[in-house]
Amino acid sequence: MLTEQAVLLDLVPDAVIVRDMDNRIVFWGHGAEAMYGWRNDEVLGKDERELLHEQFPEPFDAIEAKLLKDGRWDGEVVHRSRDGRELMVSAKWALQRDLDDRPLRILSICRDITERKAADAALQRTIAELKRSNGELAAFANIASHDLQEPLRMVASYTELLARRYKGKLDADADEFIAFAVDGATRMQRLIRDLLAYSKVGNQGLALARVSAEKALEQALKNLKGAIDDSHAEVTHDPLPDVLAEEIQFVQLFQNLIGNAIKYQRPGNVPKVRVSAAQAGNGFYRFSVADNGIGIEPQYFDRIFGMFQRLHKRNEYAGTGIGLTMCKKIVELHGGEIGVESKPGAGSTFTFTWLDGSAP
């Protein structure tokens, strides 16, 4: 009966083999011929274990005991083909018994997974290399930021002192040169701080907890108090849900998006920002941060999330071009997506999806 079933199974591309309890091959399907290279008439009656040089993940006695007890076994074994190649094989065995319940034959269905295992191994090596590289990059960012900030702080302090003490006492060129030096040092300090903050996002892994989005927004607004007061910005929000998040990063996300909304405004315009959220399905919320700012041309919707991507000159709007890149990294680390809808002169709405934290 098992041999007849094997004939039917031979229609599939896997190697179908039937052997007796002495491991002698009694059926060798077309898939086996293609996988291993021997014809049917060359292998019948031969010992399968010797023919294929089988290597098992555990002692064969243990495998045989499991087969006799459960009537089946599956696992990964190493086989050798006719041309000497080693194949990693996913094998499934089924035991047939006779009318007196004595073991009679074993059906094997074998699938060549050599390429898949090689690809998996290569992927794991790549992941390990990326982890190592990211760790080295984070360490470098910490060291470099510290080593660079100290001399920059001194340069910035002395150039600012020069500007205060000698402004108007030298010629116009000297005043301009000193101003360039102060501006350059200040921008470099800001860039180093932003790069360091970006390198830290996700570097230590995520410690997710239930976080009130309203409290996170409240903290972000406290951090932005100076900018809000200076611009007389109006920031409102709908009732916001609880989410699963690393709280510091969630606060940082709100802070960057609202800070941008306040910064990118037409002269004399009072910034108005509204934060809302709605169910997005599949255990996610969709948050929206809408503003009445200068807006963005559609062709720049993807570009603005790239590192150092600026759409305006530095003398128009300050910044390093890292803020939205950090927002994207934070959202994606939490399994969400971020995007923007905008029209020049009519404001922008940034949306991002986030894990629902209301479940117990």
Describe what this molecule looks like in 3D.
The protein is α+β, with helices and mostly antiparallel strands. The chain has 11 helices and 12 strands. Helix 6 packs antiparallel against helix 7.
State the secondary-structure class: alpha+beta
User: What Rg is obtained from the alpha carbons, in whole angstroms?
Assistant: 33 Å
User: What top-tier CATH class of the largest domain fits best?
Assistant: Alpha Beta
The fraction of residues in strands falls at 15-25%
**Unreliable residue runs:** 312-317
The number of domains is 3
Reported CATH architecture of the largest domain: 2-Layer Sandwich
Q: Spell out the helices and strands N to C.
A: HEEHHHHEEEHHEHHEEHEEHEE
Largest sheet: 5 strands, antiparallel
CATH superfamily of the largest domain: Histidine kinase-like ATPase, C-terminal domain
Could you tell me the number of beta strands? 12
Q: Number of helical runs?
A: 11
- Estimate the helix proportion, in percent: 40-55%
Alpha carbon gap, first and last residue: 53 Å
The backbone outline, from C-alpha atoms, is: elongated
CATH topology of the largest domain: Heat Shock Protein 90
